[in-house]
Amino acid sequence: xxxxxxxxxxxxxxxxxxxxxxxxxxxxxxxxxxxxxxxxxxxxxxxxxxxxxxxxxxxxxxxxxxxxxxxxxxxxxxxxxxxxxxxxxxxxxxxxxxxxxxxxxxxxxxxxxxxxxxxxxxxxxxxxxxxxxxx
Length: 135
Description:
This protein is mostly beta strands.
């Protein structure tokens, strides 16, 4: 696989029938995490830590930031946040695959300087099982 442009990583929100790309993003990030369950005891071999496979909680965090464009996707994200709604989101990772599943917006921030553009930051946490479809 060759290097890919960061702009090709897309974050999309379900608008009730299809997925629309969140407009104006300059940066995007998808992070997967899994908790470990420590089962080490006095009889663990060589006092090495032991973990219980398949027992921890998995989660994903999705975030992005960019220019406020006041487009359809901006209005949708805003209304979903204020309604504390859980929506399906989709992350398209070029030449890798697509991650789809329910997320809740946990942070929505707007900023602007008097001599610059208005920007926004958005953060989401997974709220259920995610599906991965390879390219």
